[in-house]
């Protein structure tokens, strides 16, 4: 490898402050540490008064793709006038920046693709945190442990179909659950129970006098339900508007030349990032089912009263019962058709367009039906009074929980079958159960949030200190008993989290001691030195990512009795009456202290759920005023919203649906003009870079190289998304680029080596993408010459300032000038 100057002033997205950038020349390797073999020499830093030798301009571009959080374009490009040449972020030495200081390799210009604003640019996007359960269901869809190859038959096809259908139906049930929660507050507690208490409700909550006062024209049950329906309708409207707006913002134009599709690389499909038709169809179906849920809660109480009064011979006949029956049949048919439409797979564009129109018709029909139901509900009914809980709400909620339990069990079976007969590779996490676990955890989280909203709303409206033990002077409002099980599960979840923290702390302590011999061997220093312990702790922390499956399994323990309860309710036919209150069912014959303790746990679970929602809202509000907070919130979505919305259309949008086509168009254009492109991706940016290479046309081969650093491609994506990432897909990726280098550190909890050839491998593809060995971190044990402080342990940060980065970049540059290609007739206008 030719000697090249070490990069100066390079920037890593995780540390956007200009003062945090240090030229790699100040981090000389220690003599006691075996330096990475790819760097044969490090040129000493140039004096501020010297001018480096000029190098001929190469027709090459280093196109960097940052990781989570992002930053300003000036920071990412290193174009600030001052750069630090010594010291650290607290106290350092600076000089004026020159043009060579902004180049990792002389003569190679640098570009940055800044995509951070797609997730953390607008302050309002911080409130996407409230859509976390929806996002988890969408991610679970992509975690299937089977191949994504068309033409599968038999058990493989049946299990794959069952997995996809189970996730989409579970996502639809989550939309219904959120709608029922909003209706539980607006329609059940306010419009039915509180309004039915009359003057007692007016005295406790005077602002509800327009509903509860006997003299008010809106005090009838029908009008009370209609007013209460405003809250769930508003929730549905907000979700619908948010989904439509983001879909328009993220829409891009498809390139004229399709990629070279391979079955080993599902992300190379030409339509992989074209999801607008499927998402529009799913959005219409979810909105239709949510609106139908509100309509059913309006219809059931009125129809039940009309059927009860039909044979009494009352002098004043209520609304004709057969109108309500016809509306019920129509509403059920439209809701069933909308639910079935989410199971239709994505086909060719013409089929998708027809399915989209059909789902829109169903959605619009539901809106017409809810208007007719509203008229039927407010029809005058003498003698109709609100008593107890809202009729039909408990049955709907119990049935929904039972359906969710069956769907979770279906996902578990489908995942186990796929892992047994169709697994893509052996390193799949949790033996294929990562997807069902994520779906179950997202459903549990959504249920816990819903129960917290209803329970806390009941406590606030009633003025009681506890829902389970009401006081004498408070309103007797009672939410459905099924919510108590979710609150109990949330309380147990808090106990599990505390236990996990303690166990992980002990495990980390043991891992630190296990790393000490390796650290003392690498650096030839005493184990008594505090620096040795710091390095050992950093190495142990970098390996803690491997315990993620254990953590996920532990967090799912509270969901096991909930699924069992749902299945028991179906077997015993206990859906109408619903399960008994959680404390009473668990305590059984035990009374007194046992029941009181369980009541307290339910209350604690309600408080924890409400506190979690308040914390999310507070974080979202803080993000309005504080850009660093907004970037931190966006970092969460950088990992969770990479995948298109094909399971839950109301989840936060996928930034990759816009970022990957933009990158593809830019790289393809430069390659067509004869420019050698080195795609340099850090962390999540490496995933975007790999997805971009898979989308490039065949004509770009030989002109694009890939440099990944701190990459989760193998360590996280291959394990948890085995159908889309793994040895076979990485081997395919290797054949699409002229060179691929991967930099990683043991102290990095996210990045790791990339394995290309597994047990099913073959050909000339290497087992591990170079570099197979980790980069030393820290580069030296002691302070380098001219410095008074030891170099910091970098972990996941500052890969571009490591000497190995410039060395890897030099290795991938063409040895001879690349001739530009002739412009094809009718070529595209150049742009980025």
- Please state the CA-atom Rg, rounded to the nearest Å: 30 Å
Count helical runs: 25
Number of domains: 3
For the largest sheet, list the strands in their spatial order.
Answer: 4-1-5-6-7
Indicate the proportion of strand residues. Answer: under 5%
Structural class, from helix and strand content? mainly alpha
Rounded average pLDDT: 79
Please count the beta strands (DSSP E, at least 2 residues each). Answer: 7
- Indicate the low-confidence ranges by residue numbers: 1-56, 575-579, 758-763, 817-832
Distance between the termini: 33 Å
What does this structure look like?
The protein contains 25 helices and 7 strands. By secondary structure, the chain is mainly alpha-helical. Helix 3 packs antiparallel against helix 13. The chain is globular and about 95 Å long.
Keywords:
single chain, 832 residues, disordered N terminus, disordered C terminus, globular, two-stranded antiparallel sheet, mainly alpha, Rossmann fold
Short recap of the structure:
By secondary structure, the chain is mainly alpha-helical. It contains 25 helices and 7 strands.
Topology (elements, then pairings):
Blueprint: E1 60-65, H1 73-77, E2 82-87, E3 92-96, E4 109-113, H2 117-120, H3 132-141, H4 154-196, H5 199-204, H6 209-212, H7 221-228, H8 230-249, H9 276-309, H10 321-341, H11 349-377, H12 393-421, H13 434-462, H14 482-523, H15 530-542, H16 548-555, H17 559-572, H18 582-587, H19 593-625, H20 627-640, H21 656-672, E5 676-682, H22 684-695, E6 704-709, H23 713-720, H24 727-736, E7 740-743, H25 803-812
Parallel strand pairs: 1-4, 1-5, 5-6, 6-7
Antiparallel strand pairs: 2-3
């Amino acid at each position: 490898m030719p000697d090249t100057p070490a990069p100066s002033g390079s920037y890593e997205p995780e540390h956007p402050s200009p003062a945090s950038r240090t030229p790699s020349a100040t981090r000389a390797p220690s003599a006691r540490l075996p330096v990475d073999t790819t760097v044969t020499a490090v040129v000493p830093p140039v004096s501020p008064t010297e001018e480096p030798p000029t190098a001929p301009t190469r027709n090459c571009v280093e196109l960097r793709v940052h990781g989570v959080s992002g930053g300003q374009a000036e920071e990412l490009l290193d174009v600030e006038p001052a750069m630090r040449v010594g010291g650290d972020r607290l106290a350092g030495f600076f000089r004026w920046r020159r043009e060579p200081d902004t180049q990792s390799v002389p003569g190679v210009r640098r570009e940055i693709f800044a995509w951070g604003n797609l997730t953390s640019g607008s302050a309002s996007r911080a409130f996407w945190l409230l859509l976390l359960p929806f996002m988890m269901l969408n991610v679970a869809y992509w975690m299937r442990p089977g191949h994504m190859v068309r033409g599968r038959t038999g058990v493989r096809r049946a299990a794959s179909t069952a997995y996809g259908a189970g996730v989409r139906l579970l996502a639809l049930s989550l939309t219904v659950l959120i709608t029922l929660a909003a209706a539980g507050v607006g329609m059940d507690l306010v419009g039915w129970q509180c309004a039915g208490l009359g003057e007692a409700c007016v005295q406790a909550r005077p602002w509800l006098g327009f509903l509860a006062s006997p003299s008010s024209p809106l005090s009838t049950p029908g009008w009370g339900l209609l007013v209460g329906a405003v809250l769930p309708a508003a929730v549905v409207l907000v979700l619908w508007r948010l989904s439509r707006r983001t879909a328009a913002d993220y829409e891009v134009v498809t390139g004229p030349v399709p990629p070279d599709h391979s079955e080993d690389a599902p992300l190379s499909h030409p339509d992989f990032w074209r999801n607008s038709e499927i998402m529009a169809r799913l959005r219409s179906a979810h909105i239709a089912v949510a609106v139908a849920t509100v309509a059913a809660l309006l219809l059931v109480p009125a129809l039940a009263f009309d059927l009860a009064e039909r044979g009494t011979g009352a002098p004043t006949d209520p609304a004709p019962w057969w109108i309500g029956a016809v509306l019920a049949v129509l509403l059920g048919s439209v809701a069933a058709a909308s639910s079935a439409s989410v199971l239709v797979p994505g086909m060719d564009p013409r089929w998708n367009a027809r399915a989209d129109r059909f789902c829109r018709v169903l959605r619009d029909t539901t809106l017409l039906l809810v208007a007719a139901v509203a008229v039927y509900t407010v029809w005058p009914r003498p003698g109709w009074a609100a008593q107890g809980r809202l009729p039909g709400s408990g049955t709907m909620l119990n049935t929904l929980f039972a359906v969710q339990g069956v769907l979770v069990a279906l996902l578990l079976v489908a995942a186990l079958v796929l892992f047994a007969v169709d697994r893509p590779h052996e390193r799949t996490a949790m033996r294929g159960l990562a997807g069902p676990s994520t779906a179950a955890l997202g459903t549990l989280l959504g249920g816990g949030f819903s129960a917290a909203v209803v329970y806390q709303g009941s406590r606030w409206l009633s003025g009681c200190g506890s829902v389970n033990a009401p006081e004498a002077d408070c309103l007797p409002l009672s939410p459905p008993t099924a919510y108590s099980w979710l609150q109990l599960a949330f309380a147990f979840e808090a106990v599990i989290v505390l236990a996990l923290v303690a166990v992980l702390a002990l495990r980390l302590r043991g891992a630190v001691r296990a790393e000490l011999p390796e650290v003392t061997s690498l650096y030839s220093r005493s184990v008594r030195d505090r620096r040795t312990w710091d390095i050992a702790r950093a190495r142990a922390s970098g390996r803690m990512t491997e315990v993620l499956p254990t953590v996920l399994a532990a967090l799912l323990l509270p969901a096991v009795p909930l699924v069992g309860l749902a299945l028991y309710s179906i077997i015993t036919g206990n859906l109408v009456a619903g399960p008994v209150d959680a404390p009473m069912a668990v305590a059984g014959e035990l009374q007194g202290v046992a029941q009181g303790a369980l009541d307290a746990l339910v209350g604690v679970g309600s408080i924890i759920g409400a506190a979690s929602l308040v914390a999310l809202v507070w974080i979202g509000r803080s993000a309005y005023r504080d850009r660093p907070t907004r970037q931190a919130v966006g970092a969460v979505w950088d990992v969770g919203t990479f995948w298109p919305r094909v399971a839950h259309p109301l989840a936060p949008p996928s930034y990759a649906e816009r970022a990957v086509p933009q990158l593809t168009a830019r790289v393809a254009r430069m390659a067509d003009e004869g420019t050698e492109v080195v795609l340099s991706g850090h962390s999540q940016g490496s995933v975007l870079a790999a997805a971009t290479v898979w989308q490039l046309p065949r004509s770009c081969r030989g002109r694009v190289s890939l440099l990944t650093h701190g990459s989760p491609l193998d360590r996280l994506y291959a394990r948890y998304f085995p159908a889309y990432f793994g040895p076979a897909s990485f081997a395919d990726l290797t054949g699409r680029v002229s060179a691929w280098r991967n930099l990683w550190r043991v102290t990095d909890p996210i990045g790791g080596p990339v394995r290309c050839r597994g047990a099913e491998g073959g050909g000339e593809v290497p087992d591990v993408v170079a570099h197979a060995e980790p980069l030393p971190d820290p580069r030296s044990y002691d302070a380098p010459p001219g410095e008074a402080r030891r170099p910091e342990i970098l972990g996941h940060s500052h890969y571009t300032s490591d000497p190995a980065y410039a060395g890897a970049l030099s290795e991938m540059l063409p040895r001879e000038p690349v001739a530009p290609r002739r412009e094809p007739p009718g070529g595209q206008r150049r742009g980025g």
